[in-house]
Design brief:
This protein has about 375 residues and is of the alpha/beta class. Helices cover about 35% and strands about 20% of the residues. It has a single domain, classed as Ribokinase (UDP-N-acetylmuramoyl-L-alanine:D-glutamate ligase, 3-Layer(aba) Sandwich).
Length: about 375
């Protein structure tokens, strides 16, 4: 009996048969870009479900004087009646997004959100109300006690060219702490656009927060610092300078497509993924690298229009570019869309008042710029 019990106990103590372990399958890879310019489009499509564009930046009240000729140092010239218009590069871009966003885009609803600061003054009230009228979510715009709202003094000559002096005011109080408190506004967006009318540390924080959440980043490097752009600000998905800003950043005069290619390659070497040069009447130039690491350059022709005022043309371009990418347009199509928005903006006076609607841009493109 003892022997049988021992045998039974040994049988029960036998080790269990090893379980079959399935070999781990590799993660599904994203579809390969058909062309070099499609990489940004694919990056947006891989994001979790999000909605719209967030603009982190400045709000200024634009005080505009039109004159026959631009004064030189020491010269006084006569001007027309002073105009007061809500503006600032950040607010202009947010207005462009609000007016251009289509319900056909991912997320629908309000496509524009803005993070910034204004003073506790009449200019601040007017600027926030103007954004709301442009269908921009302004709930993340903060009031700043004891500091005036930003102001821009703008002179426009008879050719539509302008010179601008900006007094930053409350814009310069926008901080990294403010952004951390508003981080959900960034994380819930598909695309974020920033400029340089707020402190550089704040801009760098916005870029870091967006990149950590895989939000596509666009930097409009204006006003371009004469001492050069801080290294951390080059690490964006798209950097979009105009010709004068490109020269300040690279030391290369950007007059044509070949100049843009050389300047673009210099910027790419600093860590930027794509460069989209705003080239005025020439349109825009895209410079990037393909999957093999080779650089490429693509000219997207502009639209010929009668220029009245170029004040907000670059901001309309940036806002439209952000909308196009958030709506999953291929990069080249988004740049053509941005060219059209910028061209239409040049045909009217003012900043916010000149930025077109989606219907106007779609009609303009459908008519091939007519």
């Amino acid at each position: 009996m003892a022997k049988k019990a021992a045998t039974k106990k040994a049988r029960h103590a036998a080790p269990p048969k090893p379980r079959m372990v399935r070999e781990a399958r590799p993660a599904k890879m994203p579809a390969k870009a058909e062309s070099a310019g499609d990489e940004i489009e694919l990056a947006v499509r891989e994001l979790p479900e999000r909605a719209g564009v967030v603009i982190v930046g400045s709000l200024n009240m634009d005080l505009v004087a039109r004159t026959e000729m631009m004064p030189v140092p020491g010269q006084t010239v006569a001007g027309q009646d002073l105009m007061q218009n809500p503006g600032g590069k950040g607010a202009n871009q947010a207005t462009a997004v609000g007016r251009l966003w289509s319900k056909r885009g991912v997320g629908g609803g309000l496509g524009a959100k803005m993070i910034g600061r204004v003073g506790e003054d009449l200019f601040g009230d007017a600027m926030v109300e103007a954004l709301r009228l442009a269908k921009v979510d302004a709930t993340s715009i903060l009031r700043t006690r004891g500091v005036p709202s930003g102001v821009a003094l703008i002179v426009v000559d008879r050719h539509g060219e302008n010179a601008i002096v900006v007094s930053g005011g409350a814009n310069m109080r926008l901080s990294a702490t403010d952004l951390l408190a508003q981080r959900k506004t960034i994380e819930s967006s598909m695309v974020m656009a920033v400029q340089l009318e707020t402190p550089y540390d704040t801009v760098a924080c916005a870029i870091a927060l967006a990149k950590r959440s895989k939000v596509l980043t666009i930097l409009d490097p204006a006003p371009a610092p004469p001492e050069g752009l801080p290294e951390s600000l080059y690490h964006v998905d798209i950097l979009s300078p105009n010709q004068s800003e490109a020269q300040l950043l690279t030391g290369i005069p950007v007059r044509n497509v070949e100049d843009a290619r050389r300047a673009g390659e210099k910027i790419l070497a600093r860590g930027t993924q794509k460069v989209v040069f705003k080239m005025g009447s020439q349109g825009a130039v895209i410079v990037g690298r393909d999957a093999s690491g080779m650089s490429y350059c693509k000219h997207v022709p502009g639209f010929r229009v009668r220029v009245v005022d170029t004040t907000a043309a670059g901001d309309a371009f940036t806002g439209a570019l952000a909308v196009g990418l958030a709506e999953e347009m291929p990069l080249e199509d988004a740049v053509r869309f941005a060219n059209a928005a910028g061209a239409l903006t040049c045909m009217k006076s003012g900043a916010v008042a000149a930025i077109p609607t989606r219907a106007e841009v779609d009609k303009f493109i459908a008519g091939d710029g007519k």
